[in-house]
Amino acid sequence: MHGIVDSMWLKKTGATPAEYEDLCHEIEAQLHYPIAFEGLYNWIVFLNSHTNPRIPVLNRYYGTFQDGKLKLRGIDLRRHDTPGIVRRCQADVLALFSHAKNSEEFMALIPEAQSIVKSYVTMIRDGAVPIEELIIEKRLSKNLSEYRNMVPQAIAAQHLNREGADVHAGQALSFIMTCNRSRITQNRALPIELVGENYPVDSEWYVDILLASTANILLPFGCTSETLKEYIESSLHDSGQSRRLTHGTPTLTYNRSKRELLTFFD
Question: What residue ranges do the domains of the chain occupy?
């Protein structure tokens, strides 16, 4: 049994939906507490804690019901500030896993999931991602003058402020990452309103968060951002496609008019 504030997951070999429905009725009768049966899972994965990777947390999980429908909680796909290209990649990986009927089939699909991620890495590095899928949306937590650490949304706000726009705490900003490791702060991010015909994109920043997003859902199976990147770089090298750069931050220039653009229950 695994439970959180408003849910419980039970495992009983051979149990039928009718048995779980009966259990709900009995709980309601004895505890006078309303409870409903949501469905039978083929499998469910409880994700690791960020503070202690050896411990699964109760509000970050994903799984599929017997009808193939996905159940998602606390992952990047559900976050509004996740770039579209990252959400799309994670959605494709989870759609692949939804075909698994049990944990063995799930595990067998992990190499194919890594191949999906590799294809997205190649898309990003080739400059084949529409700008709409590179946008990050975040709110200013305070007024611009109060920022000491210039986070990307504050940098985007600075750009808009210089152009005469009114920016304030609580305002939602849309921007792209242009050169995250630049020593010149203003070069790190650019608000979408100021993106011109040709614009720089910090391709490796997007690759890194794409890999981190995938590692988040595969960490219970020993997959980290580092091991995933090693696999992809090795695979691309073997196929003659490796474009790994080690000096500075690789930044592509896109042309808008030309682009195509650890608990496991069965």
Answer: 1-39, 131-201
Alpha carbon separation from 59 to 6, 75, 244 (Å, rounded): 10, 9, 36
The domain 131-201 is placed in CATH, from the list 3.30.70.20, 3.40.1820.20, 3.40.30.10, 1.20.1090.10, at 3.40.1820.20
What is the distance, to the nearest Å, from the Cα of residue 76 to the centroid of all Cα atoms in its chain? 3
Q: List phi, psi (to 5°) of 176.
A: -120, 155
pLDDT digits (tens, 9 = 90+) for 94-116: 999 999 999 999 999 999 999 99
Among 19-23, 52-56, 219-223, the least confident range: 52-56
Q: Tell me the pTM.
A: 0.82
Which helix or strand (DSSP H or E) is residue 64 part of? strand 56-65
Dihedral of alpha carbons 81, 62, 220, 57, sign: positive
Query: What is the distance between the alpha carbons of residues 221 and 45, in angstroms, rounded to a whole number?
Result: 10
- Using CA atoms, how far apart are residues 92 and 65, in angstroms rounded to an integer? 17
3-state helix, strand, coil in the chain (%, to 5): 40, 20, 40
Q: What percent of the chain has pLDDT over 90?
A: 59
Q: What is the pLDDT of residue 222?
A: 84
List Cα–Cα distances, 69 to 15, 95, 100, 259, in angstroms.
Answer: 20, 9, 11, 34
Radius of gyration of the chain (CA): 22
Distance, CA of 48 to CA of 94 (rounded, Å): 17
- DSSP H helices, 32-143, are 84-97, 103-125
